[in-house]
Design brief:
The structure is a homodimer. The radius of gyration of chain A is 19 Å and the shape is globular. Chain A has one domain (about 5-295): Alpha-Beta Barrel (TIM Barrel), CATH 3.20.20.70. In chain A, helix 4 runs parallel beside helix 6, helix 7 runs parallel beside helix 8 (about 185-200) and helix 8 runs parallel beside helix 9 (about 215-225). Helix content of chain A is about 40%, strand content about 15%. Chain A has 13 helices and ten strands. In chain A, strand 6, helix 7 (about 155-170) and strand 7 form a beta-alpha-beta unit. By secondary structure, the first copy, chain A, is of the alpha/beta class. An eight-stranded parallel beta sheet of chain A has the order 8-7-6-5-4-3-2-9. Chain A has helices at about 10-15, 25-35, 60-65, 80-90, 105-110, 115-130, 155-170, 185-200, 215-225, 250-260, 270-275, 275-285, 295; strands spanning about 5, 5-10, 40-45, 75-80, 95-100, 135-145, 175-180, 205-210, 230, 265. The interface between A and B is large, with 82 and 82 residues. Chains A, B: InterPro entries: Aldolase_TIM, HMGL, PYR_CT. Chains A, B: Belongs to the HMG-CoA lyase family. Chains A, B: This is Hydroxymethylglutaryl-CoA lyase. Chains A, B: One of its GO terms (molecular function) is lyase activity. Chains A, B: Keywords: Lyase, Metal-binding.
């Protein structure tokens, strides 16, 4: 029996916020529909932040309203503070992720609050949810959990201390984020095992950036510990303006191929997912798109975890020289 | 105590044979020297094949002669038949890899021999080595071990049967090659464990192509089984003419970062390795170069497995939007 893994698509939030272009609302709605139609069951559709700071997210209410019309889709958003969460709760989303940095340096740069101030903010957010929106899930997305671009190395104890503060605040789920591609599989195994042993059912998913090409390697380690929710972004949309060529989140298409090949059922149809890239190509012509599966096609003889055959496999005639 | 992993650089062979450009001999020699100076201890410097078939390898004798002058470098080549092996042995290399396909279809397309004919050829090659060149190691590089672009799915039993034939022929080492990016980590774990349990000290290394972006994920699985030799190509040089955008072998720079981050000592200096890319940029201006670490730099606080600090870490100021 195949195990199930939830691929949580974060492209419309983490991808779109990190690029220069602003995606037209109409294209966003079509993209989200196409992603859901390809079998993605959870999509982080944007963030509730001031439009002045992030014009890419100015249409968040319209985007959420559209996403909520898609049957069966779990609609998630990011919100960095009480005000954003209030608006998110009112919009009727199913889940809100709070970006909580392990290091004070990253916390100040990212959300202009110390880690202590953010813990207090989370306490208020959970209280508001408990009082007025009991059906909405809250995830703490613990950022720079594996290392920080500003503070440098981050110890396991530092990360676990912030997770403990989040558990104590009453969030439902605690995920670990490798914000800038610092994580390695050894560390991923160690930290997720500890997260699970210390926080039980509150232990959440993995959010890896592919900055140094290590994203899927870290996924393998996370899967070993029993992680069943993994974030990814179609076409690895995002990148990093200070590191040309550095990709953003791990690529959903390549992740789906990894999981299905390993026998984890994701419910994703990779051909349909690849087809959805055309919306990005058209709406964001200036942005780099990443990934491999869209170019290489599915292997001959490929089967999904549930036994389905793909619609098409790309014939390969790659022999040149003497292959090994 | 860190474990050691041997990164076997195959760019001058597997990379150069798969691209359109022919690298000038002078640049090849400088490249190989730069790779060795960056700490790579084994380099597959080319293949002994007819220059008419592979003009990229026409200078193999000169390249081997140069590589043999580099102190401490283990010089490897590929040779597909007895005639090529005779020339390779005469050249004084330390190791010859034989490309042996699991499937008859791939064997015919790649070397114009059935698998049965190739097994007979290997027997003769080992006999020649035993009689006249006892100091030279022979590795069977078992191709399409995880799936075949022509025959499709390959069973574990098929692959192990070919490995058994190779062991019986008397090769020193049996490596498994994912020739076209068909492998997944579950399969990699299963096959390398079986290789080790059935062939003991003859069980060799892993040769992964990154066709579908799964290369480093497969490395994590191989490491778990105790594999200590992993092939890679600088800048992922190679690619596939039939799948634009599909990379060649896994990228040495990203692999070295993975291994060192996980605590495996490779002896590689990543800064020097990245610097060697400039030789490719200059000598092969038309070819795509891959990888992430060269753009992202090493993380702040990074330490090599042996405790060394890197020469430089790239400061990152990647905050844009609200990071997770």
């Amino acid at each position: 029996m195949p195990c199930h893994v939830l691929v949580s698509e974060v492209g419309p939030r983490d991808g779109l916020q990190s690029i220069k272009s602003v995606m037209p609302t109409d294209a966003k709605l079509r993209w989200i529909s196409a992603l859901a139609a390809a079998g993605l069951k959870e999509i982080e559709v944007g963030s509730f932040v001031p439009a002045k700071l992030l014009p890419q997210m100015a249409d968040i209410r319209e985007v959420v309203a559209h996403a909520l019309t898609i049957a069966g889709l779990h609609v998630a958003v990011l919100a960095p503070n009480l005000r954003g969460c209030q608006a998110a709760f009112e919009s009727g989303v199913h889940k809100v992720t709070l970006p909580v940095s392990v290091t004070n340096e990253h916390s100040m740069a990212n959300i202009r609050k110390t880690t202590g101030e953010m813990i207090e903010e989370v306490r208020k957010i959970v209280a508001l949810r408990d009082a007025e929106y009991p059906g909405i899930a809250i995830e703490a997305g613990v950022s720079v959990a594996f290392g920080c671009t500003i503070a440098g190395a981050v110890s396991d104890d530092q990360t676990i201390r912030m997770c403990a503060a989040m558990a104590e605040c009453g969030v439902d789920e605690i995920g670990l984020s490798d914000t800038s591609g610092y994580a390695n599989p050894t560390q991923v195994r160690r930290l997720f095992r500890r997260l699970q042993s210390e926080f039980g059912s509150k232990a959440g998913g993995a959010h890896f950036h592919n900055t140094r090409g290590q994203g899927l390697a870290n996924v393998v380690a996370a899967l070993e510990t029993g992680v069943t929710t993994i974030d990814a972004s179609q076409a690895g949309l995002g990148g990093c303006p200070y590191a040309p060529g550095a990709t953003g989140n791990i690529v959903t298409e390549d992740l789906a191929f990894l999981l299905e090949s390993m026998g984890y059922d994701t419910g994703i149809d990779i051909d349909s997912l690849v087809a959805a890239r055309s919306i990005l190509t058209e709406a964001l012509p200036a942005e780099a798109l990443y990934g491999h599966v869209q170019d290489a096609g599915l292997p001959k003889g490929f089967r999904y975890a549930d036994g389905r055959s793909p619609g098409a496999v790309q014939p390969e005639g790659c022999l040149k020289g003497v292959a090994q």
